Each structure stands twice: as C-alpha cells, then as structure tokens.
Amino acid sequence: MNRIHTAKVVVIGAGFAGIAAAATLFEAGFQHVQVLEAMGRVGGRVYTMRPFGSDIIELGANWIHGQEGNPLFELEDGRLLQAEDVEQVCALFSRLTTRAFDSELEDRHRCLSLGDYLDNAFAESPLAATEDGLKVFEWCKRCECTDEASSSLYEVSASQISHYEALEGGFFNSLGPGGYQAFIDVLLRKLPAGVIMTNTPVAHIEWALDESGKRSTHPVQIVCEHGQSFEADHVIVTVSLGVLKQRAALMFRPPLPNSKMAAIDKLEIGTVDKIYLCFPERFWPEDCAGIQLVWDNGPEDAAVYTSELEGEAWKETWFKKICGFDTVARHPNVLCGWITGREALHMETLEDVEVGDVCMRLLRSFTGWPVPEVSQVLMSRWGRDPYVRGSYTFVPQGVLAEEHGALAAPLPPEPSSDDRKPLQVLFAGEATHVNFYTTTHGAYLTGIREAQRLINLYT
Q: What is the DSSP letter of 118?
C-alpha cells in the first residue's frame, strides 16, 4: 500500500493555515488527517459575523482601512483640518515608510526603531514646523500601529520591516457579501465530513516517542484537555504566536529546542481590536468615509510615549489610541473604530456599554454633530481570547526577521541525522512566514508549505 495512504497527520488549529494544510494533504492522497480546533467555530482570527442584520461584518481579519475620503478632526474646537495640509503630511509619511519597507534606509537610521526613524526624517521637512503637521504625523503613526499590530512604532524595528512583502494592488475594507468566510468555505468543501473537531483544546504534544522507550507505533501523541488522545506520525501546529508564548514551555514533551524557544520569545504579537458602533440612523454626510481623530499630545508623540513608559497613567486616556471611525460596507448606520496595543488590551477589560459611551463622547466632541445614542456596540477582544492571545506578529526593535524562519523549522529536520522519523512536529501560521507575516495569505501559504513538506517526504 502507498505509504501516503497510511500516514497519520493531526493538524492543531482550524484557521487559514490549518484548513489549508488539511485540504492540501487530502488533495495529495492522505487519508488519515484530523484537525483539532480549541474554539467552537472554525476560522481562527478570521471571524465573519452578521450581528446587525443579514449583511456581514468582520470582527477579525480584513484589509486595513485607508486614508482617502477620511476627514481629520481636531478635538479642541471641532476643527476640520485642511485636506491639502493633511494630504501633504500623509504623502510624506507614505514615502518615509516606503523607504523602510524597500530597505532604502540610510545607515544612520538602520539601528533605530521605526518610530525614531520616522521622527528624525520628518523633522527635516518644513511640514514639521507647523502644529497641524506634527499632529497629523502623530495620527499617521497611530494608524501605522494598526498595520504593525504594535503598542507603539517605537517598539518596532525600522530595518527589519523590509523583509515584509506587500502584494500588488490597493487595500480594500470590503471582501464582498460573503466576507472572509467565503474563502474559508472554499477550503472546507475540500475536506471530508468529520475531519474538524471543534471545542477540542490540546493540552500537550508528546513527540520523539520512537526513541523514548515507550511502546508506540507512532512517534507523536496529542493529548487534549478533555481527555481525548490521538496518535500520529506528524502534527502540524498552527496556533498563534500568542498561544506559543504562553504555553510552548509546557505544551511540548520533550521541550522544544532552544532555537525554537528563542524565536518564540523574541518575536512579538500585538493586539488590534475593532469597535463597531451601530446607530439608529446615519448622522455623518453621505460623502464621508470616516472620522479620524487628531490630538494635541497624542500617544505616538515621542515625548508622550517616553513619559508614559512607567506607571499606568495612560489607562486614563486609553481612548486616545483610537485612530478614528470608518464607515462599514453595506451598513449605512455603522461605524468601526480601530485601536491597538496596550490600550486595546485595557479596553478589552471594559464593558461594551462603557466603551460605547466613550466613543459617543469622542464623536460629539470632535465633530459637533448631533450624534444619537448608539443602539448596539460590538467589540473584538483578541488579546484576552485564551486560544489566540493577540492579533498578528511584528518584529521588535533589536530582533532579526530571520526568527520567523527559526519558528517555522520542523522537528526533527528532514533528512534527520539519526534514525528518528523526520518531520514529526511542523509549524505553520502567519508568524512562521518571513515575508508575509501578519497576513491571512501568509497563514494560508504556510499551511500549504507544511503540507508540501509531508507530501515530498512520502512521494
């Protein structure tokens, strides 16, 4: 019998990476593949919902909002900033970040954090001589925190983001009427019934059983929290970096090698949350794509960031980290706010109604418009979710992007230097992609990558 037909594979996690891995294995002829998902649903950090009617919203992943058509308001007098001034600062910010992403930084900037590099470069522009220019630039940095999933750009490496590769084309915040779930459904149709077991959190993974002296026909055993256990020749681990940070030290028996644990420790996962506000009626103009908030002394101002490193005073003004509120496709009376980092984690501890009240006060104070009482608030809480522990990965200052590769390395490697069965424990997920970390397509590709390792091993 073909060995591929008898090999047993367990996939941990039914997000994009896990489902892609399973689908690829079945298409190649594997017949014994089981997917274990801790949550009560599939999709992982993709979470398509219909809380406001028949049309979808994305509580998790979707392409990040843009700047076009978003008026910027300053709090102090509800002043709408001049579009021309805003566009000049945003254009310069875009050019400066492009230099970092294209690895075109000057030597003097390569050792800096992304925030310090941007500040130094912006200071050389006449736009930095105006108060409005400085405020808009701080707003740009706040928005970039959403892209980087970081508490602050002062914690992100300026030189290492060049490893990230953006795909061609623009960003969109609408994926069509089916949302991201439509992509998940395409993959799910490739899986036989019963392959995915939800509500099945894994307690620990025993591997290298073929050299441990234990009697076992398979080198891997997965033990679940509710008592089930599964024998396998290979396990593909697709849990988030946040879960690995919390549980990797005790999850694997024997422990992971030092290089793997170092990668888990060095890379960071940040939190990006959404705040959906459903109003009884639309109160913003038809041609308004969103309302962006510009502060005096915003949290991405260098002096403010430094002064708030110690203590918890920042919790009193957590809402300043909200970039703004965007309109939502197919929902004419819904706005979506974006918040990142430690402020997002703090917000997750608050009740929905309290967050809604704060957001209403912000909208009224900044715009002066007659903002009605919000009728429904829906928030993500990715940082507190025990099966996620964050949104997506970033490379912190002082760390090399090559750690993504160390995180992806299978155990034992193939070919193995001894008699152990190779590729017993494999790793997938956005954090394991050197170029497409943070993205759903990165997660998808890593699932295919690890499945292909196994296909190559058997064929």
A: H
Digit-coded pLDDT (tens) for 238-268: 999 999 999 999 999 999 999 999 999 999 9
Largest CA distance in the chain: 77
Q: How far apart are CA 437 and CA 420, in angstroms?
A: 31
d(CA 209, CA 237): 17
Rounded CA-CA distance 425/252 in Å is 10
Is the distance from CB of 230 to CB of 3 less than 8 angstroms? no
Angle 199-200-204 (CA atoms, 0-180°, nearest 5)? 150
Q: Which pLDDT does position 65 carry in this prediction? A: 33
| Confidence label for 82 from pLDDT (cuts 50, 70 and 90) | confident
- The whole-angstrom separation of Cα 451 and Cα 445 is 10
CB–CB of 289/69 below 8 Å? Answer: yes
CA 8 to chain CA mean position, Å: 30
Give the residue-averaged pLDDT of 315-343: 96
Per-residue pLDDT tens digits for 378-395: 999 999 999 999 999 999
Q: How many CB atoms lie within 10 A of CB 104?
A: 10
Residue 292 has pLDDT above 80, yes or no: yes
90: left (phi over 0), alpha (psi -120 to 50) or beta: alpha
The neighbouring-strand residues paired with 378 are 276
Q: Please determine, for residue 44, whether its predicted confidence score (pLDDT) is greater than 60.
A: yes
DSSP string covering 319-370, please?
GGG--EEEEETTEEEEEEEEEEHHHHHHHTTS-HHHHHHHHHHHHHHHH---
pLDDT reported for residue 2: 79
253: exposed, middle or buried (Cβ count in 10 Å: 0-12, 13-18, 19+): middle
Can you tell me the distance from the alpha carbon of 239 to that of 17, in angstroms, rounded to the nearest whole number?
9
**pTM for the whole structure:** 0.93
